[in-house]
């Protein structure tokens, strides 16, 4: 397939490594009824996944890919829109009213991947996702006991996460300057926090992780009354000298429950 020139502003790096393509296309197989792909580009993943003949829609900003994508999908299923502004919930409620098993798959444009992830996790109708990130960002989503961070805490409220595979720069044309990682996500049966509290929790995380290397007692005192901070830490059985990045999600949630307005 002859590819159009890659538009750098849209983070266009087209996948060409058969192992990575295969791993993504096979992920969550048998566990979804509908597919929503974000940023399909010329349809490298679309071509293979559409063979499973599930209801399939794509959101893509670059209209140059229309002819490529209509080889695999009905034009009514192509949405040439900015993925950051797309109404995912409205779309799923309208088009796939009956389905509880929607898979969102994307080789994300790196410059907006974290913003998109935060948007996706707030869509209550998705059941699983497979997302490609710049390795440094994607690794934040896999908890290793000492790397708690805002993106991980927000994501794990609603999803469990696992590394699917790594992708070297040569896996793409043109190759990006960095390594990549594909993360597989499965929605939790029960969210750990209602979506109505998402913004409040996000604000708390910004305060908690503003100075990651500093002791949590000192960090929180810059945003809350010192006495309240000490009480909240004591009630959560956390020492003020710890660093927030060593907390697990349960500890972060407990602390939040004692400090939330
Ligand atoms: N899925 C293809 C692949 O794996 O080869 C292309 C992936 S490429 C890394 C990212 C894709 O996202 C491009 O097709 C790009 O045009 C699209 N894209 C970038 N920014 C976008 C946005 N804001 N909204 C929708 N699509 C966007």
Number of individual domains: 2
Gross geometry? elongated
Instruction: Work out the number of β strands.
Output: 9
- Total count of helical runs of at least 4 residues: 11
Return the average pLDDT rounded to an integer: 96
Largest sheet: 7 strands, mixed
CATH class of the largest domain: Alpha Beta
The CATH superfamily title of the largest domain? Vaccinia Virus protein VP39
Order of helices and strands: EHEHEHEHEHEHHEEEHHHH
Ligands, deduplicated: S-adenosylmethionine
Gyration radius, rounded: 20 Å
Strand percentage, roughly? Answer: 15-25%
Provide the CATH architecture of the largest domain. Answer: 3-Layer(aba) Sandwich
Description:
This protein has 261 residues and is α/β, with parallel strands linked by helices. It has 2 domains: 8-187, Rossmann fold (3-Layer(aba) Sandwich); 195-259, rRNA adenine dimethylase, C-terminal domain (Helicase, Ruva Protein, domain 3, Orthogonal Bundle), CATH 1.10.8.100. 33% of the residues lie in helices and 18% in strands. It has helices at residues 18-26, 44-49, 66-69, 88-95, 113-120, 135-138, 150-158, 198-208, 216-220, 226-235, 249-259; strands at 14-15, 34-38, 56-59, 78-79, 102-107, 126-134, 159-167, 172-173, 180-187. Strands 4-3-2-5-6-9-7 form a 7-stranded mixed beta sheet. A two-stranded antiparallel sheet has the order 1-8. The longest helix is centred in the C-terminal third of the chain and has 11 residues, at 198-208. It is elongated, with a radius of gyration of 20 Å. The mean pLDDT is 96. S-adenosylmethionine (SAM) binds at residues 10-15, 39-41, 44-45, 59-62, 82-84, 107, 109, 112.
